[in-house]
Amino acid sequence: MASIKCFSASCWTILVARRISPSTFTPSLLGSVPNSQVITKALLHQDVTAPSCSVDQKKNFLLKTPKGTHDVDPKQMTIREKVFSIILKSFKRHGAEGIDTPVFELKETLTGKYGEDSKLIYDLKDQGGEQLSLRYDLTVPFARYLAMNKISHIKRYQISKVYRRDNPGRGRYREFYQCDFDIAGHYDPLLPDAECLKIMYEILSELELGGFLIKVNDRRLLYGILATCGVPDDKFRTVSTVIDKMDKISWDKVRREMIEEKDLSPEIVDRLGEYIRLNGGLAVLEHLCNDSLVSQNTMAMEALSDLKLLHSYLEIFGVADKVTFDLGLARGLDYYTGVIYEAVLLRGPEEPHNVPDNDTDKIAGFGSIAAGGRYDDLVGMFDSKGRKVPCVGISIGIERILSMAERKAEESFKNIRTTETQVLVASAQPHYLEERMRLITALWSSGIKAEMLHKKNPKLLSQLQYCEKTGIPLVAIIGEQELRDGVVKLRDVTTREEVNIPREDLIKEIQKRTS
Amino acid sequence: MASIKCFSASCWTILVARRISPSTFTPSLLGSVPNSQVITKALLHQDVTAPSCSVDQKKNFLLKTPKGTHDVDPKQMTIREKVFSIILKSFKRHGAEGIDTPVFELKETLTGKYGEDSKLIYDLKDQGGEQLSLRYDLTVPFARYLAMNKISHIKRYQISKVYRRDNPGRGRYREFYQCDFDIAGHYDPLLPDAECLKIMYEILSELELGGFLIKVNDRRLLYGILATCGVPDDKFRTVSTVIDKMDKISWDKVRREMIEEKDLSPEIVDRLGEYIRLNGGLAVLEHLCNDSLVSQNTMAMEALSDLKLLHSYLEIFGVADKVTFDLGLARGLDYYTGVIYEAVLLRGPEEPHNVPDNDTDKIAGFGSIAAGGRYDDLVGMFDSKGRKVPCVGISIGIERILSMAERKAEESFKNIRTTETQVLVASAQPHYLEERMRLITALWSSGIKAEMLHKKNPKLLSQLQYCEKTGIPLVAIIGEQELRDGVVKLRDVTTREEVNIPREDLIKEIQKRTS
To answer: Are the C-beta atoms of B275 and B327 separated by less than 8 Å?
Structure first.
């Protein structure tokens, strides 16, 4: 740190202040000695450009954002706003209410909810009082909120940042947005689950990111199959973590890891492999229902019956064509208890709408962009009486979508507008600052988005160039003649056409042209 | 912490897993023994309602948000969205671009920027790597962003949360939103400053919070007066901190603190008191210009000349009537170098629009709701070549405004709507679940905001009650007769009037009625 290797700015301030003794540097002299003013300014504002320290300080000072985080520039913000607006519109179309929770929670609120990933949680320094951690997702704070406020049913959305000390990579950050929609409450089976998948489908379609696929499984089915194949129950979690890698590494590697690292017999792994590599439509569910081993497992059969009901609802919602049942989907988080799902993008810009059964070869290589599932026990973990509130939800992982949308935008429109300014108030002559200010005041008070250059006498050329650079479509020009005639010269930046508009009609004309 | 005093959930899982030996609890049995399933479920989902641990765990578990933070419920969110939308509209009306920065910064980025308040910064635990702190405001990250990206001019807004370990109190939180607008770049004097004050004025007017007052001062004027009165320059900062208390405690107390704690002579303090208790319009500036002491201080005279120019601009912008020059305004932050300002609400619901000179008695007692100023040296502190980018900005402190708006909303409309749902799809008869799902799918795909109850066979009464409770204005009812006739019965929830609408006209009818 700069402040250790070299004097800190305030250290330096004190040194300078001492070097100048009160006798030679009395306050009453301050006004008349320009040099001392400079020193005082430096002193007062901790100006680190001052000599003795600046070089070292500068060298040691790291100008960056923390690892795995990034700033969002105006162009990215513009795209982000559009993406958020599509997501929010869908959430609201389904009657969701918004809530907000703090960025940090008591550490114990997050304890025991994320399995092996708990090591990725950011802890705050204990500065006298509570042990705090940055939220890891929006689901656990939501469950805490429900239990704390004794809410037994709600359809809520939340769009906020979450924090994970993961290894940063392509589209993977340590700080990232999640857009969550959840339905809490006792309802008839699979109806809320189907609506969640419908929303996921709507959003991914409306974002126009290309082909996508929603993989669906059920924790009960997965664990039922693990049990059926002879995996000891204390290895369910750790084996699931390996299963989750199947979309990244080959089955051979997954198989080896299960045998060598998880200590499963080759027979068990091979039996398991027959099941967890299955994926496809309704036929897969039927196949499993008739399987001699699986059909003996009550938990698995419950899940299969639920998935079939879910499929019938998804058909009515017009979503089934994008859904594939994938027995190898495990999802890392501890809290899921039923249906789980994950959306992935398909490779290539022009994917067919229908996903063929048993074909996940076309999945693009950067992981899921949306996921979720049912978690019926999480709220109960926070409730003093263990009272359960069944929940199901989705979480849209916005960063990967954004980086795709940004790439797309980069290609289509090089000069994406980052402001919404409708008109620049300009003058071709000097000494019209006050007139420009008067005109812009009138425009602002009518709700017109207007700018003027913060120069007393800007050149007309630089005013026009500003419009071209920032995409402002209109210029309202005033000068001696216009003021005398009570008009404003309205210029279309693209066509360069200029028309004199009576001052009283200007606002209507601007509104008309930019609506 | 619960996990120390009692077994943690995962600890308990392992214990249970060991107690049940593989011989008596083989996986293949799992499907047929209901009891073991319950145990497995608990085991898999870390169900802490399980016997041995639950009671203690529950007792020790604190269900709360961290000190000084709070959840935002759907009603508050609805008001918040309205407030944000007004603020954002004003920012965009003035041509601002949006940016976003991470919630934490490298600790050294924040070091030496906040004076005595630095102790309120939240630090993160060093988890191998960087020393991080939660942002204290949006200004320092903005300056870091400008320096890092070598941006020399920008008009930007940012609406984000900031973090201060302050003592929580009425409308004062440790996590709170700031809505910032800043203009960076070399421009003609006081033009950007005037626009900032114009925006502050617009937003506070449009929020309709009642009367308000914008206090304006200049750091150079304040320090010039301190020098003029004989305050030693190494005490400028600490004396300013005391001056800043003048809006909370009486002059007598401020005077005593300056003499007893800051070690100033009573003569100096009394001389100072003559100046810093001055406030009012242009006359105050004229008075100081003619003051025999102040007129000798170049820095103070520069500031006075700037404030006069600022006043002339504010008059054109129609803002001057809410502005008072207040020589006792100091502002705590280190980085200000010129004009500073702060907006306060006036007491009483019906304040006059014009604020009389020398009258700040009516200021409501809960501090500023918006503030800002000029900081010309901050970006240079981050730049490797010390290259300066002059900046000026405002920050709207939203929490106090929100708590006021919420109180107001509470009084006016008891039943504020938290969703935007236009229609509930319902049925009076059982067995119409699939038909409801078909109809709602059609509505959603036309962009209609629609809900249905997640019940197979809900009663009509409970469907109507849901509408009344949540404010949904329309119900689309289907049953045997309606399906046969190809119509939907559209019910107005308020008037209870019902009309049969041909199915093909339904979307248009809903849009018409809810537009």
So the answer is: yes
DSSP at A408:
H
Put simply, the chain B residues between 198 and 257 with a CB less than 8 A from any chain A CB are: 198, 202, 219, 223-224, 226-234, 236-237
Between A33 and A206, residue with greater pLDDT: A206
- HSE value, Cβ hemisphere, 13 Å, CA-based, for A64: 10
| β strands within B313-414, DSSP E | 323-326, 339-346, 363-374, 391-397
What tens digit of pLDDT does each residue of A425-469 get? 999 999 999 999 999 999 999 999 999 999 999 999 999 999 999
Nearest chain B residue (CA) to A470: B95
A45 contacts on B by Cβ (under 8 Å): 334-335, 337, 377
Amino acid at B263: D
| Residue pair A392/A375 in contact by the 8 Å Cβ criterion | yes
Q: Which of residues 264-283 of A touch B (CB under 8 A)?
A: none
| Strand pairing class (B339-346; B212-218) | antiparallel
Q: pLDDT, tens digit, for every residue of A216-251?
A: 999 999 999 999 999 999 999 899 989 988 888 899
Q: Are strands B154-163 and B97-98 parallel, antiparallel or unpaired?
A: parallel
- φ, ψ dihedrals at A104, nearest 5°: -120, 155
- b or e along B387-409 (b: 16 or more beta carbons within 10 Å of the residue's beta carbon)? ebbbbbbbbbbbbbbbbbbbebb
For B299-312, the three-class secondary structure string (H helix, E strand, C coil) is HHHHHHHHHHHHHH
pTM for this model (two decimals): 0.84
Classify residue A385 by burial, with Cβ atoms within 10 Å: 0-12, 13-18, 19+: exposed
Rounded Cα–Cα distance for residues A197 and A195 (Å):
5
Q: Is A423 helix (H, G, I), strand (E, B) or coil?
A: strand
Token couple for B126? 């060093």
Residue B449 has pLDDT above 70, yes or no: yes
pLDDT number for residue B364: 62
Taking Cα atoms as reference points, which of B380, B388, B373, B382 lies closest to residue B180? Answer: B373
Strands A104-106 vs A132-134: parallel, antiparallel or unpaired: antiparallel
**Residue from A222, A204, A224, A235 nearest A321 by CA:** A204
Mean pLDDT of A267-287: 96
pLDDT above 90 for B20: no
Place of tokens 């899982």: B13
> pLDDT, tens digit, for every residue of B473-487?
999 999 999 999 999
A408 — phi, psi (to 5°)?
-60, -45
Residue A157 labeled ligand binder: no
Please give the average per-residue pLDDT across A88-98, as a whole number: 96
- Check residue A273 and report its DSSP letter: H
- Give the pLDDT confidence score for residue A429 in this predicted structure: 93
pLDDT for B22 equals: 32
- pLDDT at residue A484, rounded to an integer: 96
Q: What are phi and psi of B270, to 5 degrees?
A: -65, -40
Of residues B231 and B400, the one with the higher pLDDT is B231
Q: Which two tokens stand for residue A307?
A: 């998935």
CA–CA gap between residue A235 and residue A263 (Å, rounded): 10
**B266-276 helix and B219-229 helix, angle to the nearest 10 degrees:** 150
Report residue B417 as tokens: 């709507």
Closest alpha carbon to B362 in B158, B210, B184: B210
Name every chain A residue with its beta carbon within 8 A of the beta carbon of B147: 63
Which residues of chain B have a CB within 8 Å of the CB of A138?
none
Residue A506 marked ligand-binding: no
pLDDT at residue B361, rounded to an integer: 54
| Chain B (87-106) residues lying within 8 Å, Cβ to Cβ, of chain A | 92-106
B508 Cβ under 8 Å from any chain A Cβ: no
Domains of chain B, CATH where assigned: 2-60 (no CATH), 69-184+391-416 (3.30.930.10), 213-375 (3.30.930.10), 423-514 (3.40.50.800)
Q: Which residues pair with A324 in a beta bridge?
A: A215
